[in-house]
Amino acid sequence: MDTKTMIPIDFSRKITPFVLGDILYSESIDESFEIDEEDQAAAFNLKYTGVTIHDNDYFVVSFADRPNTGTQPVGDDVMINVDFDHLCENIPASSVFWEGEGGAIGVGETWKPNKESMLKQYQAEQLEQEAKRMDNITMNGNDGEHYEKANIEKAAVKTLGNLGYSYHGSELWKPPIGKKPDYIEKEINAATALYAFAGWLTSMKEPITFSASNWATPAADMAAAFIELNNLSGDIDFDSVKTPNDSVISKALVNESEDDGPSVVETPVFTQAMKDSGSRLTIGMHYLDDVGKRCEYVGISSSCIIGRYVDMENVRSDHLSVCDEGKIEPIQTDEDNASQYINEYFEENDDAKLLIEEIKAGKIHGVKWVGK
């Protein structure tokens, strides 16, 4: 087939997307084929690039009928064929009542682009581009495209020269000998970058939480900003990265002190005592919502408590908990559990010795026997 009289798909796609039934031609295999699968249509509606076959290899042979959805599908000046009570060919899309009013075209009836008109539009655009190219040659002695390429090459030579590189007739330029000039920015190494990033995180005024239960987007955005600001180069290769065991992080949270002994960072929780005293939640505090899910308090709107789910089971990561302030429940502490157990024990038993035996056996959560 003569592709000079055909419409390239990248031009056609800008006017209307491809649908099932459209027929295309591949110049590389010299064959026509029909788009007969939705995935195939979706692929050609993107910037299609294969391993050996590229976007400019495909051309439109014919357009299939397209159902009217009730709205104008193309630009006002696009010429189309409309099939309602009789076939109307090569009319502008703006002349059709797409909503079905006036009996022009009803929803469900069909239309398609006029191929001959689209081909003329494409050819006119090509002639215009060629005219601009010839004007550039007449006025500037170049066609614009090659002039830009020459500018890029000149800029590359100038950049290498400023960096101290020299050209000696080989394919590659030779780097300068000796210490880099002060005006050449030094790239930090990986270890420095890691410690600097950690230093940035730990010096922030507002705390940020990172874990498997938190969104990863803030961490990724911060890493990207750090990389860009420090002009770090290289491809990101997660397959080659090794990470320490979580136990390393647990040890880092323990601050050994000669006076006070080890102290561990604890999460604030809304307790029964706080509820009884009428205390309110503070930002970051954990509580139970009205369906028993453990949440982290992030704010309040009117009388509704808004929290981020800590217990992510059967919950989408982008959902928040919203419940009435009066319906939140405290999280039981070890002391609460121990008191409840002891009270329930004495409601059913009157022998304290048996209770002591259970304490010694470690059966009461939160209570440890320290006597002889």
Present the secondary structure layout.
Layout: E1 7-8, H1 9-13, E2 23-26, E3 31-34, H2 38-44, E4 58-62, E5 66-67, E6 79-83, E7 87-92, E8 110-113, H3 115-140, H4 145-162, H5 190-202, H6 217-229, H7 246-252, E9 254-255, E10 263-264, H8 272-276, E11 286-288, E12 294-301, E13 304-309, E14 320-324, H9 334-348, H10 352-360
Antiparallel strand pairs: 1-4, 2-3, 2-4, 5-8, 6-7, 6-8, 9-10, 11-12, 12-13, 13-14
In words, what does this structure look like?
This protein is of the alpha+beta class. Helices cover 32% and strands 16% of the residues. It has ten helices and 14 strands. Strand 6 and strand 7 (87-92) form a beta hairpin.
Give a quick set of tags describing it.
about 375 residues; alpha+beta; single chain; four-stranded antiparallel β-sheet; 4 domains; 14 strands; 10 helices
| Fraction of residues in β-strands | 15-25%
Largest sheet: 4 strands, antiparallel
Strand order of the largest sheet: 1-4-2-3
Q: List the helices and strands in order.
A: EHEEHEEEEEHHHHHEEHEEEEHH
User: What is the number of beta strands?
Assistant: 14
Q: What's the pLDDT, averaged over the residues?
A: 77
Find the structural class using helix and strand composition. alpha+beta
How many domains make up the 3D coordinates?
Answer: 4
Instruction: Summarize the amount of helix as a percent range.
Output: 25-40%
Q: What gross morphology would you assign?
A: flat
Pick out the low-confidence regions. 255-259
N- to C-terminal distance: 100 Å
Number of helices: 10
Radius of gyration: 36 Å
